[in-house]
Amino acid sequence: MGRFLLRRAINYVVLVFLAATLTYFIAASALEPIVNYLQKHPQPPIHTIHNLLQAQNLDPDTPVAVRYWRWLTHVLHGDFGRTYTGDSVSSEMGRRIFVSTELLFLATLLSAVSGVAFGAWNALRQYRPSDQASTVISYGILATPIVVIAVTLQTVDNWFGSPIEYIGMYDPNAHGAVAIVLSNMQHLILPTLTLWLLQVTLFSRFQRSTMLDVLGADFLRTARAKGLTVRQAVIKHGLRTAVIPVMPLLVYNIILLFTGATFTETVFAWHGMGEWLISSIQNNDVNATAAIGVFTAGLVLVAGLISDMVYAALDPRVRA
Amino acid sequence: MVDLTVEDPVGAPAPAATRRNRGRGVLLRRRFVRNRLAVVGVGILVVLLAAAYVMPHFLPWSYTQNDWNALGTPPDSRHWFGTSQPGIDMLALIMRGLQKSLVIGLVGGPLTTFIAAMVGASAGYFGGWTDRVLMWVVELMLVVPSFLVLAIIAPKLAGGTWLVFVVLLAAFGWMITARVVRSMTQTLREREYVLAAKYMGVNPMVIIFRHILPNVASILIVDATIQVGAVVLAESGLSYFGFGIQPPDISLGTLVATGEPAATTSPWMFFFPAGFLVLMGLATAFIGDGLRDAFDPSAAGARARTRGSAARPEPGPAELAGSTVTVAEGTAP
After folding, report:
1. Phi and psi (nearest 5°) for A57?
2. What is the span of the domain harbouring residue A188?
3. Do A22 and B149 touch (CB under 8 A)?
4. Which of A62, A226, B78, B204 has the fewest CB atoms found within 10 Å of its own CB?
5. In chain B, positions 158-217, which contact chain A (CB-CB < 8 Å)?
């Protein structure tokens, strides 16, 4: 198993390196940070602009390959450069990762547990009204863009006179630690609900279909024959087998949410990684965009390794 | 039973094959129609297509016309869906956006599947280095942050035409299906009729098009349907941030984006286009599901089937009935 994981890890590292390189080249050649300076009033002299860009390794006159090499050597020393406002990319990223983690922790935990449980429950009740209703509802949710889900929740909240506040991380007028924490928790409700709705639908659909595959299997009949009740057999033997194929989906979705919660973060004005992805492109911020590229590719690597490990831990056939 | 539904031997004698294909077509249609949701999906899609392309000719307002007496008014008898901020009839706007979204989905979905089919079948059929290189490209494409790259490239390239944008969307959506097609091709490669064609000296690409792809047609058709919804969702997502369809063109995604800031005060500007977007997604999902059931009634999902038949479930009573029909009608010459 160690060699299996090691080989996978080396493969992933190479892939991440190439993906990050590709992202840098695309970002560096397609984004135009010079626009940020040309738009200033009064416009700085053109050679000053080039000097400023040169200092940040953004000068369009320098060949992309040279800029890439400079960027790469800095990144390997742990320096991602500066954002277009002049802050350090690394510290900005640290802050935003914290924001995203806070937003995602509860949502992913809830959706993973409830998705698996709900999917298994629906599989046990296949073709009953509850199963058919949840099938149609999940089609509806999966066909709906997240933006629409988020705005719908906001609108419903407004109908009832906005009992739940939702813009930003917490109310800026709140004073004192307790008030801020309470306000923060209140602001978590709607974005968490948005993320949960989508994730739980995805997980439960998949869990339902793997569970259906397992329910008719011979080993469940054997388990029943040796005297287990339906419930014991399904939970001890059925669910454990059926959850294995769902694990990669679960792990990938949860890990990639770090940059994938773009819509939720934007609509609810949480300044996390997902929102940064959009704003850095809109601001022609090459260094930030490239850093996000590295981060996202790195997440795929982590997700891949974790899902391999979970798979190996759950499925004895992989260990051999 | 899986073999019978998925792998319809193409190398069978010609007259038998045509009779059998007709029988299969009838069978598929009958199974499809039995799925009520699938029929509803077809109904929705037909209505949407008709509405998008026929209705604008009968509307009193066009999507380029401003009604200066009704700026941002709620739905009434003059403007059924209300008007936008500059006084454009929302119904006309939505129909225009629906046209573009439908075209994007209906071109982009099959295109995605086509790329997946070509890559997957080539990798599976040729094996060896071709396989290794292509699968490695698939892995790389999965690691590259596609949303980020699309968001950077799309506005630069889509300046000319939306068609470039559709190709871009397809270029980032084919990877998973390609893997599925590859694993199915690997089992088909050793079949007698494929080997026969190969040793007769048939061009490999001809073999792929004539013998491999028709045998994975079921999964390709289902996938193309599902990809329609996926492409439309991706388009609306990118358009929401202004990275997708660019101004003179209108899609449901751009309408949702312009309506979003006013969603709570003027809900008709946001929820009508959003509703049509959801309807489109629902229709394609229903149709895809119906097609899958029609092609392989015993499969709980396309993924379950590709996991290999070793772990196949014992079908429940309902599915068993469906598959005996398959066996009975499928084996009849």
Report:
1. 65, 40
2. 89-319
3. yes
4. A226
5. none
